[in-house]
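Take a specimen:
=====
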Amino acid sequence: MNIGDKVRMVHGREEGIIVGFTKNHMIEVEIEDGFRIPMLRSEIVIISQEEAARFQKNPVTEPIKNTSRDVLADRGIFLAFIPLNDIGLALYLINNTDFDMPYTLGQEQNGKYKGIKGGSLARKSSVKIDEYSSQNFESWGVFVWQSLLFREGMTSLREPMLQRIRFRANTFFKTKAKAPLLGKDAHLFQLDTPTASQPVTIQPDKIVESWENNTQLTTNNQSKANTVNKPASEIDLHIEKLTTNLIGLATAEMLQIQLQAFEKALDAAIAHGMHDITFIHGVGNGTLRNEIHRKLGKNVHVQYYEDAQKEKFGYGATKVKLK
């Protein structure tokens, strides 16, 4: 199961779209009117493309219609590296959404940009981009993906998406998963994360100019420092430290609160130029620790992370070294 897959409830008639994975065996499903519910993996089944085509409500000859009750997958775009042999990898771009996707894919290296492929990828389809060798892993540079989502008819406006990815050997080869649509084992990376829909353009020359003149940037930094408080060097993520309203909270909701607190503290630490920060997550079943480590592995501002002071925290804390 992957982001963007259409599913049906085993013990009901509701259908929806997978929009996230919140906990071991817990899947977040969006049903009608944008309502999202957590479900056990065992309580849902994937609706195959053949079944959807055979039993669709509208004949294929009718124009596409979109009402407020439609449940459309607007996330589920992936890069999938499928092993060809011991060192060869075939790169595919996968569009597992219900939207057509004009896109470009390129690489940045040594300050230069090289276009690799561009075009329009239809909904629920994939395209082979190129083949790569894992022996040249360090020379891949930064992959740059840009796209729009398009669907005929009335839909909400989708912002352009931009994502830059530099793959790291210590995390790349730990991402084995089944590639959606292709059905093959792959090193799988989701592109349309929430941050991808709101790209930020950074102009290094403008920043340097501001530093040299010591004018506008200084004022902006002072303003930001006033609105973003510097976090403590140790952040306790135990749920009872974050909220007193525990009655009725599901496990998935607690995890979401903890991850939001983690991301807020990490962003603040980066904004204030801290050298390191420690997150106390406890041992438990390892879900929170694994989610934190997964997010840290993708953050370009993180130099490395490690278990923090085992004599003090055991294996219940992670120290993050920032760049």
In short: The chain has three domains: 1-72, 77-197, 232-322. The domain at 77-197 is CATH 2.60.40.1600 (Immunoglobulin-like). The chain is about 25% helix and 35% strand. Residues 55-69, 197-204, 214-219, 222-226 have pLDDT under 50 and may be disordered.
